[in-house]
Amino acid sequence: APLVVQFTDTSTVGSASTESWFWDFGDSQFSNVQNPTHTYTTGGSFTVTLSIITSAGGSTEVKHGFIQVSGGEGEGEGEGEGEGEGEGEGEGEGEGEGEGEGEGEGEGEGEGEGEGEGEPADPAQALLNSFNQADTNNDGRLTFSEARTVVPDLTQGQFSAMDTNGDSFLTRA
What is the spatial distance between Cα 154 and Cα 66, in angstroms, rounded to a whole number? Predict the structure, then answer.
C-alpha cells in the first residue's frame, strides 16, 4: 500500500442513458464519477460495487475481493534484490530487519453477470428499489431523511455521493 487503481465503467445500458454512477471501493470511500481513480492506502482484500441509475431504471455490479492490496507494517529479516513486470511494476533492494513499506501500481477492469435473490447489495440499489416508498410527499425527489426511512444504515457521505448535482435531493431517473 498505497495502490492507485483506475476504474472503468464498461456497463452497457442499451438505448437508456446513464444518469448517475455510485462506486463503493470497499474501504469506506465512494465516488460518483463514471471512471474514477482511487488510491487504496491500506493492505487487504476489497469488494468493489458499481451502481448506475439510467433513464430505464438501475443496475448494480458487485465484485467480491476484486482488489488485493499488499503492504502494511511487519517485522522480519531478509535481504534480496528483484525487478518485475506484469499487472504491477516494482523494484527494490534492501537488507536488515524492522518495519517496511511497499509501493505498487495496478490497473483493472471487469465485466460480469449474475442472478440472485435477497437484499440489495448497497444503499444506492436499496434506494432505487424503494424510491416510491421513501418519497413520502410524492414530489419525485428524496431528502436524506426520506432515504433513511427505507435504508436506515445510509450515511450522509453515501447520500452526498449519490447526489450528483449537489442540491441535497436524489431524483428518480
Answer: 23
| Count of CB atoms situated within 10 Å of the CB of 89 | 12
Query: Does the reported pTM lie above 0.85?
Result: no
Q: Supply 54's cell numbers.
A: 439510467
pLDDT in tens, 52-68: 988 888 888 899 988 99
Whole-angstrom distance, CA of residue 128 vs CA of residue 111: 22
Q: Please give the Cα distance from 29 to 165 (Å, whole number).
A: 19
Q: Is domain 3-70+104-171 classified as CATH 2.60.40.10?
A: yes
For residue range 5-28, list pLDDT tens digits in order: 999 988 887 788 888 889 999 999
pLDDT, position 111: 58
The DSSP line for the chain is --EEEE-------TT--EEEEEEE-SSS-EE-SSS-EEEE-S-EEEEEEEEEEETTEEEEEEEEEEEEE-------EEEEEEEE-SSS-EEEEEEEES-----EE------------SS-SSHHHHHHHTHHHH-TT-SSEE-HHHHHHH-TT--HHHHHHH-TTSSS-EE--
